[in-house]
Each structure stands twice: as structure tokens, then as C-alpha cells.
Write a structure and sequence with these properties.
This protein is mainly alpha-helical. The protein has 19 helices and six strands.
Amino acid sequence: MIHFSLRRLVRFGLALAMATTVLAPLAHADLIWTPDGGWQVQGGVLAPLFGDLSASKSALEAMNKAKTAQDTGRYWSALTQYNQVISDFPGSVFAPEALFQESLIYIERHQFEKAYDTLDRIIKRYPDYPNFNGIIRQEFRVADLMSTERPYLMGWVPWFKDPSLAVTFYEGVAKNAPATEYAPMALMKEALLYLSMSGVLDNGENAAKAIEALKQLINDYPQSMLASNAYLELADIYAKLVIGPPYDQGSTRQSIRYLEDYLYFYKDSPDAPGAEKKRNDLLDTYARSQVILGDFYYYYRNSNRAALIFYNQAITLAPASPAATQARAQIDKIRRRVPAPMTPYDIMFGRYKDHALEKQYSDLAVAQEQGQIGQLTAQAFASPTSQDFAEAPGPEVVEVISANSEGQTFDSFEPFLSSPGVPPPAGAGTGSPTPSTIPVQGTPPASTLPPDRPLVR
């Protein structure tokens, strides 16, 4: 009895496998429309074989009635028939096609938001729908229409345009079909819409979103024909943020960067000469900002050294620019020791003096007079002798906290670790107060050195 049951089970399994193999193509049936025959199923339908054949006939009849009403402009009747198919046969091949036809009706009625939502339902509920590229194409079309044409409420009341909703549609296209040619196109359209919506009142948010979309296009689709345009658009965005040479040049640097990238990757492009001219103009703006800084130190701070730094920076940034020519002329004045014209402040109070620079030169003069510079140099380059390492180190330094008669505490070190051949300082090991700075053999007092130069120990 057991062997008989197993034999039947094996036979049933083989039959089921054969049926699955034979009927697998039937499960992927296609719904085809012809003007003469209406909707027809090609490839077979699995439902009529295991279910009610009359139900499939009812779905076909409803689809044909809806299509006839759609073609004759009776959209309400067509939508009613399509909705009946979607609700009564959600798992059949008819449901996604009914949704697709509904989206076409909504597009004709300028109900763009409903059209996009209907197409998005097909992608989410029926991922194996054979006309996937057609869905993406229609979604892109809906986004284009939403950005250019006026939508209608309920299909007949004209309403306001909403470019922000069109941006959402483009984002959905790029997300739903990242491997198609529609994704970079959607990102470019999205960026251009953000730029059209940017203004003074949005605090630069839309421009920032446009930059993000263009960067995504370049990073994710570098081989796209739109990548070159993305570089130019990024350069234009940052160039429009440039106020002028006297202001911050961060946007100028960013624009120059994208133009140089464009000229590197697309040097043979017809737009390359224009991009190169724009880059040179921006380089001149950037270099002129350095000339302005140099002029400030030359005319108002009496600091030729600082002025030379900025003039040379301008020449380095754009050697062939008008700003570099102006910087060279200023450098020539400084070399010929031509003083800057007197300002009203100079006339009233005398030339501006750089007190920090004066103090530094004064400290250097004092150090030279005391002969400390030569001593420091000799000590810095002196090599250690074997005698310095032959002597055993002194006892370990121990920190002791002492208190005076008034209860104030201070640090002392006992015993001191003296240099070889030098006796410990007075008071070492006695617990008496000592200065907080421990002198080092051969080190001059800190007051005799320039403030910007470290001690040489």
C-alpha cells in the first residue's frame, strides 16, 4: 500500500512538472490591440485553463468596450470599464494594460498627476509588464507636460503650473529606470527646472539641488551625451554666484574647476573655445582679487613685503591676464622704491606703521647686538661628543609641592637634573621655591629672540 502511494505521488509530480513546462509560455501572455479584431490574447492565458473561461471573456469584452469608448472620446465610460477590469481581474494580464490605457486618458484630460500615479502603480504592482519601456517613456512625457503645460482640475478646469511637481516626476523616472537613457535626461531636466525656480527668496536651495542633480549625472552616467553639458551647466551656476573681485572667490574657483574638467575631457568639442574664454575671464577675476589685496597693503598698510606676496600670487594664477600685467607694474614700483601716495590718514598722522613688524626687527637688532645669533647658530649645528654621553645621568627628578607661610603652594624640583659639568642651581634639593621655567645650558633669555622664532635647545 505504501509503495502504491509513493508510485502515485511520483507520477503526479512528473505530470505537474510537464504541465508547468508546457504552460510556462502561456503564463506570459500578451494583450494585443488591432483595429479590426480589438483586444486579443496572444501566447495563451493561464487563467482560462484552471479557472472560469467566461470570466476571461468578460474581461476581454470590458477591455474592448473601454477601448471603443476611449477612441471615440467618451473618457468617463472608458475609465469606468477599465476600473472594473482592474478590480475584478487584478492578477490577470488585463489589469496592467487597463492601467496603462487609463494613464493615456488622464494625459489627454491634462490630469498629469493622476497619469503619473497610474503609471507608477504598474511599475510597483506588475514589474513583469512587457511594455516597461513604454511606461518609462510615458512617465517622462508626463513630466515634460507638467513642466510646460497647464494642468486641469477634474479634467476640465484650468489650473496653475507646478514645476516642483514636474521635478518630482523626473526624479521618479531616474529612480525607476536607472539603466535606461531616460535617467540622465531626467536628471538634466530636473537640474534645469531647479535653476528656473531659483531666485533671491529661496536662499540658494534650488541652485544647490540643481548642482546635486548635475553631479549625479556626471558621476553615474559619465558616458552619457549629456555629461559634457552638465560640466558647462555647473560652471555657469557657480559663475553666476561670482559678485566680483573684491568678494570671496570660492564660487570662482569652483567654476574654473568645472571648466578645466570640461576642457580636459572634451577638448575637441565645438564648445571648447567658448569654455576656454570663460575660464580665462574667471582666472582674471580671481587674479584681480589678489591684486586688490596687494594694493591694500601697498597703499594703506605701508607693507611692501605683504603686497609682493599677493602680486606674485596674481601672476601665478593667470600669467597672461590683464590682472597679471597690473600686478607686474606694481611690483616694478616696489622694486624702484616708489612710495605709495599719501592718504588723508598719512597726511594727518604720518605713514601707517606695522608695529608687529617693527617689534620683530627690533628684537632681531637686540639679538645681533648681544651676539646671540651666532651663538644660537653654533649650538644648533654642534654635534654631540662622546663626553656628553659618557657621564651617567643624575638622579631622577621628583616634583614636590611646597607651601609658604601664607598657605600658597608652588612647584619645585629636587634634585635638579643638571647638564654635564654644570652644578645644580641654587636651592635645588632644599624644597625652596624655584622659577616655573627651568633654564637650559646655553639658551639665551626668551626676550632677546624674535617672537616668531622658536628657542633652539
